[in-house]
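Suppose you are handed only these lines of text.
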Amino acid sequence: MLDRSHPGPLILTLPGGPRPGLCTDCGVSRLGDGRACGRACQFIAPDYPALETAVHGRTANPDTDEAFFGVTHTMLRARLSPPAPGAQWTGITTTLAAELLRQGLVDAVLTVLPDPSDRWKPLPAIITRPEDMAQARGMRMGWAPTLALLEPARAAGHTRLAMIGIPCQTYALRALEAELGLDALYIIGTPCSDNTTTQNFHTFLNLIDKAPETISYLEFRADFRVELRFDDGRKPRFIPFLQLPISQLPPDFFPMTCKTCVDYTNRLADITVGYMGGDGDQWVIARNARGAAMLALVAPHLTTAPLTSSGKRDAAVRGFLENTARAAGGLPLRRMPDWLRPLVSLLQTRFGPKGLEFARTRVEMKAIETILHLRRAHPARMKNMIPDHVWRVAARYGLTPTPDEKRPAQTPPSDASGGSI
Ligand SMILES: Cc1cc2nc3c(=O)[nH]c(=O)nc-3n(C[C@H](O)[C@H](O)[C@H](O)COP(=O)(O)OP(=O)(O)OC[C@H]3O[C@@H](n4cnc5c(N)ncnc54)[C@H](O)[C@@H]3O)c2cc1C
Ligand code: SF4
Ligand code: SF4
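From them, the structure of the protein bound to flavin-adenine dinucleotide can be written out as follows.
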């Protein structure tokens, strides 16, 4: 039953922290089963084909855009009308979750709120009232142990759950789903890339604005600019990517986990809500019948437009590959002279890849980054950790696995362990 008497989101202090090595502290290690990470972790031996089949009924078609974006039932360019105040884009994500609660389809939503002591820090919370979803709107930078909420949710008697999660959280939840004994599970995913610790993110904010504490919103937009909004009355600022102070960031600014992540588009969510392929609007991928049913719940509040795709990604991706290869090899990035940056930024905005071509660009870049960084930092992990979908999109740029880097199809991973939570 939906408990409408609860006073608001349940925020819990969850003991524990990231495990040594590649770990984004998704919360599984805090569940009290020391072996659960071996079965659940995206960074150990992910099996996307098996989980795609279990969740969506089939694997992604490698000959279509599913090679980039994963299994797709319906793909839309859409915005919520009117946009939800405080949302990262227009609020489709939190509205989907609110609607699941409103319709009584789930008892609780696992998600993150802004930490009261630092608005950029994600704080895991269990939400049971639709009106409380508004508090979760917006993007935080950092990792949150959202899956550690599975135990308190079970203790509270919630057996029909939704989770709003980033891909590494979704993977772990899907891998454990069968052993959780839930009556229903809905996963609303967002794409995710270039995440870092909240502490590191503050270093970045300090470099890009003279009053970083007043920045209330930040987004890496699909028009190659970062948008900043402020709560001190200033007008929004738009900074071209090329003019960001990336070279002033410490080399470990982006953690190895997020440089070697194998899923950009949240391939195992029932529905993915992002912006990359939206050409200025949001980009929604319902992946299966459950995702399509969720989309139908909010359809009356959506304004849709045809998806677009224009420009060519090859030059941008090849330039990225060259620079990433240098960085992964410890060499300084090839820097563009300052005088040339405004011109190149303008050309990027006018003629760069847009719409779905922009989304393909970003997915390819992420695949390249994963392969090159693992090759340098963790070559022994490559064969268990890199799924075929990553190799497939990188092949176009000559990145193919050596015999040591790829596991023969369907061989069980060497270091996963059994058991249940
Ligand atoms: C670190 C990060 C990187 C991202 N990178 C991309 C990208 O490259 N391309 C792209 O298309 N989209 C990306 N997204 C998703 C994008 O920022 C929006 O969240 C998405 O478009 C949904 O917008 P919305 O208005 O529907 O969300 P809202 O309705 O505002 O809801 C956002 C939801 O995301 C949750 N959330 C916020 N921060 C985190 C966090 N750190 N961890 C887990 N959950 C969180 C909130 O709790 C809320 O439930 C990223 C998100 C994050 C957190
Ligand atoms: S499953 Fe989660 S907690 Fe465990 S190692 Fe992986 S990211 Fe860390
Ligand atoms: S980039 Fe990948 S590993 Fe890093 S937080 Fe996002 S989904 Fe997790």
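What can we learn from it? Residues 10-196+256-309 form one domain. The radius of gyration is 21 Å.
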